Amino acid sequence: MLLNLNMAELLNPHIQPVELAKAYRLLNHGPTVLVSAQHEQEANVMTAAWACALELVPAKVSVVLDKSTKTRKLIEGSGYFALQVPTLKQIELVQALGSISQFDDPAKLEHCHTPLFHFDGFNLPMVEGCAAWLICELIPEPHNQQVHDLFIGKVVAAYADDRVFRDGHWYYHEADPSWKSVHHVAGGHYYTIGDAVDANKS
Amino acid sequence: MLLNLNMAELLNPHIQPVELAKAYRLLNHGPTVLVSAQHEQEANVMTAAWACALELVPAKVSVVLDKSTKTRKLIEGSGYFALQVPTLKQIELVQALGSISQFDDPAKLEHCHTPLFHFDGFNLPMVEGCAAWLICELIPEPHNQQVHDLFIGKVVAAYADDRVFRDGHWYYHEADPSWKSVHHVAGGHYYTIGDAVDANKS
């Protein structure tokens, strides 16, 4: 089921825009992310642990996408992708979307029971229930893509669920634990994000 | 005070080599890292949140280093750097090393009370008390370095403290909480890594 932003907002009024100059904060703590892409009629979502902020202004991100992935082909075709910050309550979805290739299972998204919606103006399959969404325009760099599997994107829109990110800050320490980001180590073993701690006390 | 590995091992027998094929696991959960570099007689350490694994075998990493940093100049001079995974008990050091530039304070490392040692064979100032250390040979890429401030390195040696990482796995969930990695969001606000959670239960 694909919804545009208006419909998504009706269903979830907590989805709020994030100032692009603060979009890096959505990734700064190093969460495992979901990568979405669509080209023509083909849509896919995959899990990636190797995503990172790359520049503050204009906001840019990087993500490593293996040549074996269908999502990579869709991004090369459309020139757009999205990074999303999933939550602990989505961990089985995160694991499934990172374990199954759409090349092997064309109905991967259905088989993983992936709840999707659209932001108005972007032909990208966004995952419902995430904590944050970054919509990115690919900056084509053939060397990085071919040699390093590294894809660079300019963030053109960013959103977060205000129950866990608002006013430019994460509230993992106040939100229900089910909102915590997940950080993959290997083989289905993850850590959640933990406690808030401030430096500069001295 | 700089010690070689033999001396370091005498002081800390918990420092153990990590198989290079598993070195990515040291960074996979997205911790904020310390970046070390030395060129001729000049040594520095800085904090970076934008570091990421880039390839499994041969193990490669990426790290974003602003043109304003002294550490970047040292890496450009020597062709080597190290990424280190600091711990909660080092959070004030992490914050200080990320707030002060050696261009402004040539005695930054002393003023930050940075405890250093050397691994034998590498002329790099390593920070005592970290959970892991990755020694990297710069893969020179002028475009990435100039346009994206992105530095890519091949991991040539990796070590971890076996009280928190051993047999290719993190043990944050069993170790004392002071060993937890720290994940910077912005302005001295961090989250620690949290609880272990496994997917694939279904």
From TrEMBL, chains A, B:
Keyword S-adenosyl-L-methionine: no
Protein name: Flavin reductase like domain-containing protein
Keywords: Flavoprotein
Domain Flavin reductase like: 25-172
InterPro entries noted in UniProt: Flavin_Rdtase-like_dom, Flavoredoxin, Split_barrel_FMN-bd
Lineage, highest ranks first: Bacteria, Pseudomonadati, Pseudomonadota, Gammaproteobacteria, Moraxellales
MF-aspect GO terms: FMN binding; oxidoreductase activity, acting on the CH-NH group of donors, NAD or NADP as acceptor
Domain of life (superkingdom): Bacteria
UniProt source species: Acinetobacter tandoii DSM 14970 = CIP 107469
Similarity field: Belongs to the flavoredoxin family.
